[in-house]
Amino acid sequence: MFIPGIIISIVTFPGVIVHELAHQLFCRLFKIPVFEVCYFRFENPVGYVLHEPAPRVYQTVLISVGPFIVNSLLCFIIGFSAALQFKFQSANVLDYFLMYLAISIGAHAFPSTGDASTLWNAVMKSGQSSWFQKAVVAPIVGFIYLGAFGSFFWLDVIYGGAVALGLPYIIIKFLV
Amino acid sequence: MEENQTSGNDSISHFNDELCVNCQQNRFEPGKPINLCTDCRKSLIAYPIPKSIIYFAIALAVIIGVSLVRTQRYVSAAIHLGKAENAIERKEFLTAQNELLAVLNAFPDHMTANAYMMIASAYNFDFEAYGVAYERIADKTTEDDELLQQVNTASSYIAHNFPNDTVFYKKILAYPNDEQKLIALADSTDELPLKGQVANRLYDLKAYSAAQAITDSILIVDPNFYQAISMKSAIKRNLGKCKDALALCDRLLQFNSQDVYAISQKARIELKCKNDKAAAQYADKAMNLSPYNPNAMEAKAMVEYFSGNKKQSLITLAQIKEQERKTGDSTVSTRLSPIINGLEVYR
After folding, report:
1. In the CATH scheme, what is the homologous superfamily, with its name and number, of domain B166-340?
2. Cβ neighbours of B74 in A, within 8 Å
């Protein structure tokens, strides 16, 4: 079933907000000036952060993939208790809400192609980056584009569901 | 569809290049990608987060807090359930039952946990726990065919112990000491539990060959019939055929590797064959699994008695009697008492 990405983004808007907030917080962490932040809007892109280029490659990488870390973590924490409620067949309205919230946040964990483009320009096109840095960043950019391509097949939502619902079960299996 | 974009300074070339691109009032800090003065840089680093987003973040933090608090209870139950699942896979039904008790204390109506409890309690012959779990899920449906199959197999396993023909069962009780009539009764029924009951009576009469003939006939029909295998093991033990008796116990342990009766029986067989060290190990194992199980306590008492510690064996006998008072079944103390009081020669 094809549903336009903008519709999915609107339905899962909490994830967009967390995604942009993550970019902003990583900028603040590295003392990078931010010029504009749009946490959510009804057009493409649904959110963005305009900031000064980071002076170091690792900072650029972390600002770009920050949402992947923050969104995935929040998705897992919020999803954990709800997932276990489902496992114990005692899920209530709150659990369905928590699961919606967790999957929404998880679905926006993937950095966007805009993030990938920023990363590519800052590292791959920069004469100051070392070969090692380029070797590390190139596959990250590749994965980001792969994720963007996969979003046509709901990969982003599937990822959110896997982290919120599947990961808790795997962890419990591991703890047993 | 969300982006983080770096901002170039190409589009602001019409500004005074000597001044901050943001405020156009102060000189910019040199050596930075974008020409910002110190004040602007500081304020843009701390780019304000709108109140609505702060409230959103606070709400999210509260939700996370609530999630973490709730999760603790569920994690504990989920771990117990996982351990029970693993124990059932390994046929360690005593461990499984203990783990499931912890799950069902928190979630009494959990379908899967009750289904597993039916399985574990069936293989432990814990009729009470089986009945409670059955009552809780009797009217529920499941799409898990594999679990349903396991429950059905376990249910038929425990059902072997219930004779359907109660009139016939009363006839067995009417002739407790008449070997010929008991044999005739066994021949007149196809119901395996009733045949098993007759074999049991014959065993009590020390009519071992007749009892074994009946158990053999049961095992031809159903090679996994618990009562018949355990009875045959006891007969072999009393006939001094320890290897055969132990092998039959191992067959019982294939159904439930924590079958306390079978492990205790192995201890008693080893004692019979004067392998006291091995017997002590089996008795310890049984006691570790289920310290208040009369069969385990019996094995312990016998090991104590044959190692010369008669006083301790009498204390254990008293403890067995105390346990039996709770269930009303004095089978174990009745057969143990003459042995450790020196009235019956066991070996």
Report:
1. Tetratricopeptide repeat domain (1.25.40.10)
2. 81, 84-85, 87-88
Tokens of A97: 């809400």
| B51-159 CATH | 1.25.40
- CA separation, residue B238 to residues A87, A116, B70, B197 (Å): 51, 80, 57, 18
State how far the Cα of A98 lies from the Cα of A118, in Å rounded to an integer: 33
DSSP SS3 for B57:
helix
**CB pair distance less than 8 Å for B74 and A122:** no
Per-residue burial over B86-103, b if 16 or more Cβ lie within 10 Å, else e, is ebbeebbbbbbbbbbebb
Mean pLDDT check: name the lowest of A91-100, A123-132, B175-184, B186-195: A123-132
Question: Residues with Cβ < 8 Å from B213, sequence gap 6 or more?
Answer: none
Q: Between chains, do B5 and A19 touch, taking CB under 8 Å as contact? A: no
Length reported for chain B: 347
The rounded distance, in Å, linking the Cα atoms of B299 and B240 is 17
Q: Is B104 on the interface with A (CB under 8 A)?
A: no
Residues 6+ apart with CB under 8 A from B308: none
Digit-coded pLDDT (tens) for B230-254: 999 999 999 999 999 999 999 999 9
Determine the residue of chain B that is closest to A74 in CA distance.
B64
Q: Could you state, in order of their start, the residue ranges of all structural domains in chain B?
A: 51-159, 166-340
Indicate if B166-340 has the same CATH topology as B51-159: yes
pTM of the model: 0.74
> Minimal Cα–Cα distance from B259 to chain A, Å?
23
What is the domain partition of chain A in residue ranges?
55-175
Contact A78/B82, CB-based, under 8 Å? no
DSSP-derived letter for residue B8 is P
d(CA B106, CA B118): 17
